[in-house]
Design goal:
By secondary structure, this protein is mainly α. Helix content is 69%, strand content 1%. The protein has two domains: 332 residues, no CATH class; 37 residues, no CATH class. β1 and β2 form a beta hairpin. It is globular and about 65 Å long. The protein starts with a helix and ends with a helix.
Length: 418
């Protein structure tokens, strides 16, 4: 709460000084203020998680400064004082909208930040700091999920270390793109969905759908996570804490599916704009080379429905685990493989192994894994290159890191510590 108050105070300072040529000095002062208050609040309220949270925040802040004030001497992808074409599109559209123009790139994300820029400042440092704070908020939502599920300190710390220090997500956490905001909304949606899993609260389930729909305003395909929720609602009985199909589950799931269909038919342009551009099966065969990183050419086209099913598994594999070694174009791809691809490979190995063991979290692992696999299948047909795949799979970083944490067996000494 103190950090939020400090942020609001800082936003007022930025707004009052926005017309000054030295606005970035005031933004830096606000960053220092928010950082100090955040660390003080961590010591007071999250002392047992202080180290991973502090390191995660520090890494992001260091990357932010590096991104804004260097010419990227380490050649880290997406970073440097010169914006890439995508980020330049998002930023310029937001600035244009803030001055009364049209946000012709980035949709609602650019419009949202255009409003923020109009109220405060269009400083790029300020904009990327806001993105960074959304990433930090996402980490805390994940921690709240672990508390809601009554996970021990052992699992909570493992989750935090995972989400705080993963290099690819740390970099994504400060660049001017919409992935972090979408990931935050999906994490809040997951929080309420897991409330339903634990307490059978249908109200929590509806709230989870609302946040999933809100995320789909910024990227239409993310709203399809609702289908995975409905599948689990059909198969899982929270009152008994086990997978069981009942008449009540079937009725509720049919009603939910009818409601989602209604929204898709009558409000598609608002909530599923990305999907409205799909005119037919052949649209999925579109290949965007994206600087030579396209993998769609390896797995065939999708001109027919049968080919969609035939190539589902290879598309899924490339989406989750690329870039493979035959796709490497330089050091950036090698780093991506080491810190992103290998992470997801190890994650799937641990999860599958846990599902066939006596892991006490096997039920929760099954539920989270259904969601992750379903969404990976959805995105695998909308993504055709490894760079975009890495960004999209990190939209679900909270699910992935939770799965990573709970797939380990808790040792006796860790259990006694909690």
């Amino acid at each position: 709460m103190l950090t939020f108050i400090a942020f609001l105070f800082g936003a007022c300072i930025v707004a009052l000084t926005s017309s000054l040529p030295s606005i970035d000095y005031y933004v830096i002062a606000v960053i220092i203020l928010v950082t100090v208050i955040y660390f003080i609040e961590l010591i007071k309220t999250k002392s047992k998680y202080f180290l991973p949270l502090a390191i995660g925040y520090g890494i992001r802040l260091a990357i932010l400064i590096y991104d804004i004030y260097t010419n990227n001497p380490l050649n880290i992808p997406e970073l440097g004082s010169e914006l890439s074409s995508d980020m330049l599109g998002f930023y310029n559209a937001a600035v244009s909208f803030s001055m009364g123009g049209i946000a012709n790139y980035g949709g609602f994300f650019s419009q949202l930040f255009g409003i923020v820029f109009r109220l405060t400042s269009d400083s790029r440092l300020w904009g990327e700091f806001l993105i960074m704070l959304m990433s930090v908020a996402n980490i805390h939502v994940g921690l709240r999920i672990s508390e809601e599920l009554d996970l021990s300190i052992y699992y909570a710390r493992r989750f935090l270390w995972c989400i705080c220090v993963l290099p690819n997500y740390a970099i994504l956490s400060v660049i001017f793109r919409r992935e972090v905001l979408i990931g935050l909304l999906l994490s809040v949606s997951l929080l309420f969905f897991l409330k339903w899993v634990k307490t059978s609260s249908e109200f929590g389930f509806i709230i989870s759908i609302c946040f999933a729909l809100l995320s789909s305003v910024f990227h239409g395909a993310t709203g399809l996570i609702i289908i995975s929720y409905i599948i689990i609602h059909l198969l899982y009985d929270p009152t008994e804490g086990r997978f069981r199909i009942s008449q009540k589950n079937i009725i509720y799931s049919c009603l939910l599916l009818f409601g989602l269909t209604y929204i898709f038919v009558y409000h598609k342009d608002l909530f599923f704009n990305k999907l409205s551009k799909i005119s037919g099966i052949e649209t999925l065969s579109y290949v965007r080379d994206a600087g030579g990183s396209s993998y769609a050419k390896y797995v065939g086209d999708s001109n027919t429905l049968s080919r969609v099913f035939i190539f589902m598994i290879p598309r899924f594999i490339y989406f989750m685990f690329s870039p493979f070694h035959w796709q490497w174009r330089g050091l950036g791809d090698i780093i991506a493989f080491l810190f992103s691809s290998l992470f997801y490979m190890f994650l799937f190995y641990k999860v599958i192994r846990s599902l066939f063991s006596k892991n006490k979290n096997r039920l929760l692992i099954s539920i989270l894994f259904i969601i992750l696999v379903f969404m990976a299948c959805v995105f695998s047909w909308g993504v055709t290159n490894s760079g975009t795949a890495m960004r999209h799979r990190d939209k679900f970083i909270t699910i992935s890191c939770l799965l990573f944490a709970i797939s380990f067996e808790e040792k006796d000494n860790n259990r006694s510590e909690s």
